[in-house]
């Protein structure tokens, strides 16, 4: 029997609530507010250095995940992707530089979770890797 990937029917609020369980400590939150966007941008940077078209198609698929959850989130993440692409155009680093940024940011994330005393949410469900950026975007939208 083959196993099909399961797309969750959770709402954005449910995703964010579950994600927040392992992100209560203020230091961990601050680390995530810095490292999650950095990881997202570094992934785009690594991707763009390998294949522009593949990265753009993958970005479009990620945006489809977000629009299913929330139009404002979709717009915020679309804007964030455009900002990332602009930063990458201004800083034309290669794959190795973006990979180094990726590794350092992940080390930061794991330090944050060590401080929090809880394991990262994506250990339970890989879709939480897309919820992290949504959580940061939602936090910024709530601060208005």
UniProtKB/TrEMBL annotation:
A GO CC term attached to the entry: membrane
Membrane-crossing segments per the record: 39-67, 73-90, 97-115
Signal peptide, first to last residue: none
One GO biological process term: sphingoid catabolic process
InterPro entries: Mpo1-like
Keywords, ordered alphabetically: Membrane, Transmembrane, Transmembrane helix
Name of the protein: PRS2 protein
């Amino acid at each position: 029997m083959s196993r099909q990937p399961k797309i969750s029917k959770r709402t954005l609020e449910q995703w964010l609530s579950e994600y927040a369980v392992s992100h209560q400590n203020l230091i961990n939150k601050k680390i995530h507010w810095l490292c999650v966007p950095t990881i997202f941008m570094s992934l785009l940077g690594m991707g763009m250095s390998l294949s522009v078209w593949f990265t753009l198609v993958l970005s479009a698929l990620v945006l489809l995940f977000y629009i299913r959850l929330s139009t404002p989130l979709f717009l915020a993440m679309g804007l964030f992707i455009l900002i990332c692409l602009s930063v990458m155009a201004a800083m034309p680093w290669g794959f190795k530089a973006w990979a180094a940024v990726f590794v350092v940011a992940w080390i930061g994330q794991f330090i944050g979770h060590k401080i929090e005393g809880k394991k990262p949410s994506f250990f339970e469900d890989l879709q939480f890797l897309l919820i992290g950026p949504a959580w940061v975007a939602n936090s910024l939208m709530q601060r208005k």
